[in-house]
Amino acid sequence: MPALLEVRDLKKYFKTGGGILHAVDGISFALEEGKTLGVVGESGCGKSTLGRTILHLLEATDGRILFEGEDVTTPSRARLHALRRKTQIIFQDPFSSLNPRMSVSAAIMEPLVIHSGLSRDDMRSETRKLMDTVGLAERYANAYPHELDGGCRQRIGIARALALNPKFIVCDEPVSALDVSIQAQVLNLLLDLQEERKLTYIFVTHDLSVVKYISDEIMVMYLGRMVEKAPSDELFENTLHPYTKALLSAIPEPDIHCRQERVQIRGEITSPINPAPGCRFMARCPHASEVCAEPQKSEEYSQNHSVSCCKCGELNKRKEELIR
After folding, report:
1. Pick from 105, 103, 64, 69: nearest CA to 86
2. What value, to the nearest 5°, has the Cα angle with vertex 79 and ends 75 and 85?
3. Residue 318 confidence (pLDDT)
4. From CA 6, how far away is CA 295, in angstroms rounded?
5. Vertex 235, ends 61 and 185: CA angle to 5°?
6. pTM of the full predicted structure?
7. What is the dihedral of CA 133, 85, 157, 52, to 10 degrees?
8. Under a CB-based contact definition with an 8 Å cutoff, are residues 217 and 231 in contact?
9. φ, ψ for residue 247 (rounded to 5)?
């Protein structure tokens, strides 16, 4: 099946007083229609910047973005306007992403006013349908964001993202600001909508339990680079990169009788400003050696499981030699 979205060597740099900040540095992947790619990593690794660059909320420094087979890296104003109908985002903070002076119905109707060309009555009808789709009671139509809880506010954000019937949505940590019980409701809503509307998601999060539940594939980022990417079950069962292993070991174990071994990460975080060409996890990796100072390439360890680590590459070669 051809990819709905393809990203090739995407880079996003920012100028700072101390040099160039490499927020996203050479990310490549392909995403099939109807699938979910989870993007995980610690705060500051470039997850949200990646999603916003793909949607042209930030302009790419280098690389290519292909949507439905068409290069949309530098679209014209008219092409970008059309692209907005097919690509949307659900923001992390449902309160700050909403206009406090707009009622629920006005906030959901806004994308229709800008893009749809429908009559006022048709837009009101469509707004009611969207509220019903995301589970917002009609009595909230004239309410304002400050009068609602976090779950209801996030449902407004989801309804706004669905208003133009898009094909692709970036979910930028959409449940991180919500209580656990509300998280489950929103996640199940996103899954139901994906099945009904054949939606394609990039799901950005730092919660590994959440990303395993919702994702078909998971990409792990560290300081702007992809360190590992694999199908969801494969990543959890056959973890390769030392950083991914440390992340997974931090997942809380609900059984108090289960003794869990934690992988401790020691050392200072490498600066993302003018970084050296080698592995950015090198300073904190217990397996680091001189060869890690060389540029790292993402290699396929097994089917659909790629890792950017020279040590994992060496293990793969040894494995192939043993098979022979």
Report:
1. 69
2. 120
3. 47
4. 23
5. 85
6. 0.89
7. 140
8. yes
9. -60, -50
Nearest by Cα to 108 from 55, 150, 161, 148: 161
Q: Are 30 and 3 in contact (CB under 8 A)?
A: yes
Query: Model confidence over 261-276: pLDDT tens digits?
Result: 777 777 788 888 998 8
Distance CA 218, CA 229 (A): 6
Q: Report the amino acid identity of residue 157.
A: G
223-266 residue pLDDT tens: 999 999 999 999 999 988 889 988 888 777 766 666 667 777 77
Q: How far apart are CA 165 and CA 249, in angstroms?
A: 39
Tally of CB atoms within 10 A around 31: 21
Cβ atoms within 10 Å of 50's Cβ, excluding its own: 28
Cα 167 to the center of its chain, rounded Å: 15
Token pair of 255, please? 């059984």
Which tokens go with 315?
A: 């293990």
Q: Which amino acid is at 71?
A: D
Secondary structure, 3-state, the chain? CCEEEEEEEEEEEEEECCEEEEEEEEEEEEEECCCEEEEECCCCCCHHHHHHHHCCCCCCCEEEEEECCEECCCCCHHHHHHHCCCEEEECCCCCCCCCCCCCHHHHHHHHHHHHCCCCHHHHHHHHHHHHHHCCCCHHHCCCCHHHCCHHHHHHHHHHHHHCCCCCEEEEECCCCCCCHHHHHHHHHHHHHHHHHHCCEEEEECCCHHHHHHHCCEEEEEECCEEEEEEEHHHHHHCCCCHHHHHHHHCCCCCCCCCCCCCCCCCCCCCCCECCCCCCCCHHHCCCCCHHHHCCCCCEEEECCEEECCHHHHHHHHHHHHHHC
Instruction: Set out the domains of the chain in order of their start, with CATH numbers.
Output: 3-86+166-261 (3.40.50.300)
Q: What are phi and psi of 42, to 5 degrees?
A: -70, 165
